[in-house]
Amino acid sequence: MGVWRWYRDRSIGTRIFLGMAVGAVIGLVMGPAADNLKPIGDIFIRLLLMAAIPLIFFTLMSGLTTIKDAGFVGRLTVRILVYYVLTSIIAFVIAIVVMNLFQPGAGFDLKGDVKTPIGQMPSLMNVLIAIVPSNIVEAFVKGDVTQIVVFGVLLGIASLLLDAGTKMRVAAFFETGRKLFMRLVAIIIALAPIGLGALTAYSVGVYGSKIAGPLLKFIGAVYLSQLGTFVVIMALLYAIARVSPVFFLKRTYPLYLTTAGTTSSLASLAQALDLAEEKLHIPRAVCGFTLPFGVQFTKDGTAIFLACILLFAAQSQGQDLALGTIVVIVLTGLLLATGSGGVPGGGLVVGLVFVKAFGLPVEIAVLIGGIYHLLDMTNTTLNVMNDMVATVIVSRLEGAIRVENGAIVPQV
Asked: Where are the alpha helices (DSSP H) in 242-299?
């Protein structure tokens, strides 16, 4: 009873590590017979995929329908979206370059069922046509996440034109749906120690030592990609806003302790708003829009994870990605990263969908779930940090803050 109480009090990350450790021991003992445990992991995968699509849709719509005054925030929206798209593309490119240099998946000899050759690139026009749904019900049935996200964006724009009463009811509906599916995902993620433990037992028993090297290289590649993106973000902060990165980090570092501990951008939002007003002297009218908006749209850390997990899976299959395919990866990844839920484990859920969308075996991606907490800590921190940087940059462009010698000072 004492052991169960101790286990119950541990964080989900610790539980996952314990589940993976137990699974590894079981795999070593059972050897190839651990293949019998794979169905348990497969059920866990299906549960995650079941909840992923509605979570993405409701979370996206919940964010879009909270915009209250389109006229007031129009300029802020354009500027901050341009910044988010730019940094997300940079994050994707950095991750793709690092993964191609280190090739962590090349040593991971797991041959799954690859249904489509991902090295072939359709024409740009066909790509544009394919992302626009002709039947949204069909898109949901097929699990076409890109079409669902496009539909959500268009529906969100339409909601801006509704009268206040109707818009409030629409926003409440999607926020309720978001909370419902966040709860569902939380329940499913609670099963991760069992599901990922079973997959670890299967993988260790069947594939043995082939896992450790590639996974360690994968972690290193993700961290290096995040470091490169961090350097770019700090450079943009100084180049555009003329704010010293040292000043910025000194004023905001408590926030990153929270993000690393909770791995949730939503959980850290209240603290981010407080620091933006009190420590960075950003008007509430600006940060009150940009920071909640950024919870949904600032996904550089998630973008890096998506690019790395897809290339890891592709490399394990011996697949080479053409330049055109990389363009598709970036475009699809931008949409999927935006649709991730801002909750612990949300990036893993979207990562599974991302791998599945390109016809690669999702069990490769799920193996990363055992060490995902290590990645999610830095993913979330990078996301929230860039949200704060974007808020500072937009505030500077709007003339809402005053900067002297690299420091933000109160307006006179």
From this structure: 245-262, 269-278, 284-297
Tell me the per-residue pLDDT of 344-376, one tens digit each, with 9 for 90 and over: 455 566 666 666 656 656 666 556 766 676 777
**Total residue length of the chain:** 412
Structure tokens at 249: 């980090």
Bridge partner residues of 409 (DSSP):
402
Residues 348, 341: Cα–Cα separation, whole Å: 10
pTM above 0.85, yes or no: no
CA gap 234, 394 in Å, rounded: 15
Cα–Cα dist 216/209, whole Å: 12
> Under a CB-based contact definition with an 8 Å cutoff, are residues 115 and 317 in contact?
no
Contact in structure between 199 and 27 (CB atoms under 8 Å): no
What tokens were used for 150? 């496009």
151-192 pLDDT, tens digit per residue, is: 877 887 788 788 888 888 988 898 898 788 878 877 887 887
CB 233 within 8 A of CB 393: no
Q: Which residues pair with 377 in a beta bridge?
A: none
Query: Are 145 and 333 spatial neighbours (Cβ–Cβ below 8 Å)?
Result: no
Average pLDDT over the chain, rounded to an integer: 77
Which helix (H) or strand (E) covers residue 171, if one does? helix 164-190
Residues 184, 233: Cα–Cα separation, whole Å: 34
Q: Which residue type does 369 have?
A: G
Beta bridge partners of 403: 408
* CATH 1.10.3860, domain 2-409, yes or no: yes
